[in-house]
Amino acid sequence: MKGLLFLSLLLFLEGQRSLACPRLCACHGSQVNCSSRSLTPSLLPPTFPAGTTTLLLHNNMLTTLPRGKTLKCLYSLLLFSGSQCL
Ligand SMILES: *[C@@H]1O[C@H](CO)[C@@H](O)[C@H](O)[C@H]1NC(C)=O
């Protein structure tokens, strides 16, 4: 019983978190703007709001894309420039 409560709480918190705008980004409707924030792969927010349709990640220092991001509604992802290729 305790385990179930704990699991429910965990799922609840997880749900809350995935709806919130990531601390390092600015959200306008379904657009999440994380551009020009000197983001490295490890600084990239662990979750994005569930209904995110546009994710701006350009002008950062992203050299790899992390795995495990579920963005069902995403149709636009900006990821150009910002990283040095050497
Ligand atoms: C995204 O955020 C950056 C940095 O704050 C800002 O310069 C840019 O205008 C924003 N872009 C959009 C489309 O809101």
TrEMBL record:
Name of the protein: LRRNT domain-containing protein
UniProt entry keywords in alphabetical sequence: Cell adhesion, Disulfide bond, Leucine-rich repeat, Membrane, Signal, Transmembrane, Transmembrane helix
Matches recorded under Pfam families: LRRNT (PF01462)
InterPro entries: GPIb-IX-V_Complex, LRR_dom_sf, LRRNT
Domain spans labelled LRRNT: 20-54
Membrane topology: Single-pass type I membrane protein
Gene Ontology CC terms, in alphabetical order: membrane
Family annotation (PANTHER family): GLYCOPROTEIN IB BETA, PLATELET GLYCOPROTEIN IB BETA CHAIN
UniProt organism field: Salarias fasciatus
